[in-house]
Amino acid sequence: MHSETDPHLAPVPVAGGALTVATWGDEGPLVVALHGITSSHRAFGLIGPALGTDHRLVAPDLRGRGGSRDLPGPYGMAAHARDVADVVAAYGGGPVVLVGHSMGGFAALATARRYPDLVSHLVLVDGGAPLPLPPGVAGTDTAQAIAATVGVAFARLSMTFPDRQAYRDLWRAHPSFARWSDEIDRYVEYDLVGTEPELRPACRLAAAVADAQDLYALAGVTPAAPGVPAVFLRAPRGMLDEPDAPLNPPGHATHWLPGVDEREVPGVNHYTITLGPDGAAAVVAAVREVC
Q1: What local confidence, expressed as pLDDT, does residue 1 receive?
Q2: Three-state helix/strand/coil letters over 204-242
Q3: What value does the mean pLDDT take over residues 46-72?
Q4: Would the pLDDT of 144 be above 90?
């Protein structure tokens, strides 16, 4: 068994090519972790070593991100669910515990609903419940909704950077990363492709825009049970570490996902619920409860 900070990376065949998949741990129950909309497997850089001591944590770079950025569309939660099913099959089959952070929660739910035999439990980490449209946004205007909710994360996808330090400086100025750490530094370092002086984020803008269409409580979207036992870990602080603007307000997940076990993780924001020690410990504990 191993629990090093840096996981083993390997390709897994899927439609159109191969996903890059990170693995912590050599044996034990299989857990599959899905990251957020502009993120990568490095979102689980604290969680992987902790679980890897007695579990096998597998975290793909989802289609259009990280090492999987060159996989073609279509994107969307149905496509991610098909990819996740291929990952589960490649690592021995299910049922598995699926962990999903942010958009990864939506992909985890889509997988559980489409492939119920592959999933035993869900650990949804501040993601998976349809997002409310911001005030003043029309009921079908997802472009405005994106700008109002995750616009800061999206903005960097159209930018280039002269060197790695410039990209690091962008993230260090982000309010959610006021407490910088080596793991956040690794997360940021992984999220660059190209060569100086035209480095760019690994996430493709087209993939993020397409996937965002599936995240909002648009007309016709109604509450639906997860389909398998599910925990929802809620961050009380927001995308920019705001104390009064969580992405998922209290009771939001319970409303949209009837039967989910909603829990608040004190003191964390939408990013540090995986990339901070307290948030990572809560995710690890939730997985260990069921696996």
Answers
A1: 33
A2: CHHHHHHHHCCCECCCCCCCCCCCCCEEEEECCCCCCCC
A3: 97
A4: no
Under the banding of pLDDT at 50, 70 and 90, the label for residue 2 is very low
Give the span between the Cα atoms of 31 and 138, in whole angstroms: 38
| For range 173-192, the mean pLDDT | 95
How many angstroms separate the Cα of 160 from the Cα of each of 63, 165, 199?
Answer: 21, 12, 5
CATH class given for the domain over 8-290:
alpha beta
pLDDT given at position 155: 85
Of the candidates 240, 241, 157, the one whose C-alpha atom is nearest the C-alpha of residue 199 is 157
How far apart, in Å, are the Cα atoms of 213 and each of 85, 225, 265?
22, 20, 27
Residue extents of the structural domains in the chain: 8-290
pTM exceeds 0.90, yes or no = yes
Q: Report residue 77 as tokens.
A: 């939660």
Closest C-alpha to 187, from 208, 163, 203, 209: 203
Do residues 30 and 96 touch, judged by C-beta distance below 8 A? yes
Residue bearing tokens 């809620």? 234
